[in-house]
Specification:
The complex is a heterodimer of chains A (about 240) and B (about 250). With about 240 residues, chain A is an alpha/beta fold. In chain A, the strands form two sheets. Chain A has a six-stranded mixed sheet with strand order 5-6-7-3-8-9, with helices on both faces. A three-stranded antiparallel sheet of chain A has the order 2-1-4, with helices on one face. In chain A, helix 4 packs across helix 5. Chain B has one domain. Helix content of chain B is about 75%, strand content about 0%. The chains are: A alpha/beta (about 240), B mainly alpha (about 250). At the A-B interface, helix 3 of A face helix 1, helix 4 and helix 5 of B.
Chain lengths: ~240, ~250
C-alpha cells in the first residue's frame, strides 16, 4: 500500500505537487496519468524518499521509504532507465544491487532470464537500446520480488512483445495481491493494463476512479476532457 | 553496513575507469620515479645531501592527479548518470551509503598506494646504491616517509571524492582538484612577501614535509611546514572537505 497525505512539494516558485492525498491499494494495477509536468514523476520520487515533501507525508506500507530496513524487498521501482552506469555490464549492475539487498547471485540470473537479458548479461549497458535498458530497469525492480512496484513509463521503447509481456506480468502480480503503480502517456495501453486510474494535473488530484468510472466513451476522450484545463504545455495554437 | 560496503565494492571494481585510473597512476608513479633516479647527474650531486626517498617518489606528483580523478569519478559518475537515485533506492540511509563509499575508497586506495610507495622505494634503491646514496627502511625517517607518501595519496583521493560529491560534475570537479593540488602553489608564493603561512598550508608542501628524509635547505625551507603542522594540515583538509561533502550528499539529488 502506498499513501500520500496532503503532500506538497515546491521547486522555487513552481508547485510540483499541491496538497496531494491519495492511496494506492494492493490487488490491482493502478494507472497513473496526467499531462507533461503534472507531477507524476515527482510524486513517485516523493514516495521513494528521493525527494522530501515540504509538507505532508508519503508512506510505503505505513512508513517513510527512508525508514524501511529492506527497501528492495518491499518496493521495486523503475524511474529512469538511464540511471545506470554505462560502463558496467547488466550482470554487474544487478550484482551490486543484489549485494545491497543481501540476495544471492542466483537471483540475478533469474531476473536476467525473466526479462530476456541473459544473452546480453555480460555486455556493458552503454551499448543497450532504450528497450533493453527498460528491461534492465525492470530486472532491478523485480530483483527482490517486492510486494509493491512503482514504474514510471515502463513500456517506453519496448517492442510489442515486451509491451505484451509487461502487461501480463503486471496483471499477474496484481492478481496475486501486489500493489502496482504504473505511469504512462499511452492511454490505449492503460485501458488494457489498469484496473484503476489516478489522474493528476498541475500537481493536483483530478481523478481517483475505477477504469469503468470514466464514462462509456473512449478512455482517451474522457482523459482529454478531464485534463483539458490542466494541460501546461500544448502544441501549436488552437 | 556490511551490505552497503559489499555493494560499493561491487560498484568500484566493475567499472573500467575506476580500475584503469589507479593502474595508470601506479605506472606513472613508478615509471617517472625510476626515470628520475636513473637520470641523476652524479658529477654534480652529493650523495650525502640527496634525499633518496624523495627521488624515488618523483613520479607521485603525476600519480596524485590520477588518484584525485579516481576519487572524483567514484562519486561524480553516479550523479552524471542518475545512478545515485538507484543507490538511494537500494540503500536509503544516506549516512550509511556515505560511510560505505568512504570506507571502500579509503581501503582500496590505501592498499594500492601503500604497495606502490614501497615498490617505488625498492625500485629506486639499486640505482642509488651504486653511488652509496641508498637508504634502508630502518634508517631514521625512511619508513615514515614511505608510509606518509601512501597516506598523502589517499588523502588526495578522498579530497577528490569530496569535491566530486560537492560539485557533482566530473569535469568541474577535476578542474577544481587540479587547482587545489597544482595551481594553489603560485598563488601562495605570490603572497610570500607578506606571509609564508599560506605556502605552509598547501597540500604539496605538507606532503614534502612528511616525506622528506633529509633536512630541507635553501629557500624551500621557509615554506615547508613542520611534520606536525603538515599532518594537522592534511587532517584539516580531509575533515573540512568530507564534512562539507556529506552535508551536500545528505541533501539529496536536487
Amino acid at each position: 500500500m502506498l499513501e500520500l497525505r496532503e503532500v506538497t512539494k515546491r521547486y522555487g516558485r513552481v508547485i510540483a505537487v499541491d496538497r496531494l492525498s491519495v492511496t494506492i491499494h494492493p490487488g490491482r494495477v493502478t494507472g497513473f496519468l496526467g499531462p507533461n509536468g503534472a507531477g507524476k514523476t515527482t510524486t513517485m520520487r516523493l514516495l521513494l524518499g528521493l525527494e522530501r515533501p515540504d509538507t505532508g507525508t508519503a508512506l510505503v506500507n505505513g512508513r517513510p521509504y527512508r525508514a524501511l530496513a529492506r527497501p528492495l524487498h518491499e518496493v521495486g521501482a523503475l524511474l529512469d532507465a538511464g540511471a545506470v552506469h554505462p560502463g558496467r555490464t547488466a550482470r554487474a549492475h544487478l550484482g551490486w544491487l543484489s549485494s545491497a539487498a543481501g540476495l544471492s547471485r542466483a537471483r540475478v540470473d533469474e531476473v536476467l532470464e525473466l526479462t530476456g537479458l541473459t544473452s546480453v548479461a555480460g555486455r556493458r549497458v552503454g551499448g543497450f537500446s532504450l528497450g533493453m535498458r527498460q528491461r534492465l530497469g525492470l530486472a532491478a525492480a523485480l530483483l527482490a520480488d517486492p510486494r509493491i512496484l512503482i514504474l514510471d513509463e515502463p513500456v517506453n521503447g519496448l517492442d510489442p512483445e515486451g509491451v505484451r509481456w509487461i502487461r501480463d506480468l503486471l496483471r499477474g502480480l496484481a492478481a496475486r495481491g501486489r500493489t502496482v503503480l504504473v505511469s504512462s502517456h499511452l492511454i490505449s495501453e492503460m485501458a488494457l493494463t489498469a484496473d484503476h486510474l489516478v489522474v493528476m494535473g498541475r500537481g493536483r488530484l483530478l481523478a481517483d476512479t475505477p477504469l469503468s468510472g470514466l464514462g462509456d466513451g473512449s478512455l482517451e476522450d474522457a482523459y482529454l476532457k478531464l485534463t483539458d484545463r490542466a494541460v501546461q504545455y500544448r502544441a501549436g495554437d488552437r | 553496513m556490511k551490505r552497503a560496503i559489499l555493494a560499493e565494492w561491487g560498484k568500484l571494481r566493475t567499472v573500467r575507469s575506476t580500475v584503469l585510473v589507479p593502474a595508470v597512476a601506479v605506472l606513472l608513479g613508478l615509471g617517472v620515479g625510476l626515470l628520475d633516479v636513473a637520470s641523476i647527474d652524479w658529477t654534480t650531486t652529493d650523495p650525502a645531501a640527496l634525499d633518496p626517498v624523495g627521488e624515488s617518489f618523483a613520479g607521485f606528483q603525476f600519480a596524485e592527479l590520477a588518484f584525485a580523478a579516481l576519487g572524483v569519478l567514484a562519486i561524480s559518475s553516479e550523479y552524471g548518470t542518475g545512478l545515485i537515485d538507484t543507490t538511494f533506492l537500494a540503500l536509503p540511509r544516506r549516512r550509511t551509503v556515505y560511510a560505505a563509499k568512504l570506507a571502500v575508497l579509503t581501503a582500496f586506495t590505501l592498499a594500492i598506494c601503500g604497495l606502490s610507495a614501497f615498490t617505488a622505494f625498492f625500485l629506486g634503491r639499486p640505482f642509488l646504491a651504486r653511488h652509496h646514496a641508498a637508504a634502508s627502511l630502518g634508517d631514521p625517517g625512511v619508513l615514515r616517509a614511505v608510509v606518509c607518501a601512501a597516506v598523502y595519496m589517499t588523502v588526495v583521493t578522498l579530497l577528490g571524492f569530496a569535491v566530486g560529491a560537492l560539485i557533482r560534475h566530473t569535469a568541474g570537479a577535476m578542474a577544481f582538484m587540479f587547482g587545489l593540488v597544482f595551481l594553489a602553489w603560485p598563488v601562495a608564493r605570490a603572497v610570500e612577501g607578506v606571509s609564508t603561512l599560506p605556502s605552509k598550508l598547501l597540500l604539496v608542501n605538507a606532503a614534502q614535509a612528511l616525506t622528506a628524509t633529509r633536512p630541507i635547505t635553501g629557500p624551500p625551507a621557509a615554506r615547508v611546514p613542520s611534520p606536525g603542522l603538515a599532518a594537522l594540515t592534511l587532517a584539516g583538509y580531509t575533515v573540512l572537505f568530507l564534512t562539507a561533502a556529506y552535508w551536500r550528499f545528505r541533501d539529496g539529488r536536487r
